[in-house]
Amino acid sequence: WLRKRSFRAVVLARIDEGGNILSMELLKPSGNKQFDDLALETVQNSAPLPAPPAKFVTKLKVDGVSFGFPE
Fold first, then answer.
1. Are the C-beta atoms of 2 and 34 separated by less than 8 Å?
2. pTM of the predicted protein model
3. Which residues on adjacent β-strands are paired with residue 13?
């Protein structure tokens, strides 16, 4: 049923040099708790992410990277 909805959410994740998730937060909630929980779970289950290039490690630890759902 979620596929038929137009929910959108953005998850911000901070990652380390090994692609491990240091922290996550819901940057823009969809307004639907179930959808938001699934977005967070999807990012968590993708860990570890590919190791970032060395020049981006500090930026990703501090600023993080955002994941848009459904994009």
1. yes
2. 0.88
3. 24, 65
Kindly state the tokens that stand for 33.
Answer: 């708790």
Cβ(43)–Cβ(11) below 8 Å: yes
Give Cβ neighbours of residue 5 (< 8 Å, ≥ 6 apart). Answer: 32, 35
Tokens 């020049």 sit at which residue?
Answer: 55
DSSP per residue, the chain: -GGGS---EEEEEEE-TTS-EEEEEEEE--S-HHHHHHHHHHHHHTPSPPPPPGGGHHHHHHT-EEEEE--
Q: pLDDT tens digits, residue range 8-63?
A: 999 999 999 999 999 999 999 999 999 999 999 999 999 999 999 999 999 999 99
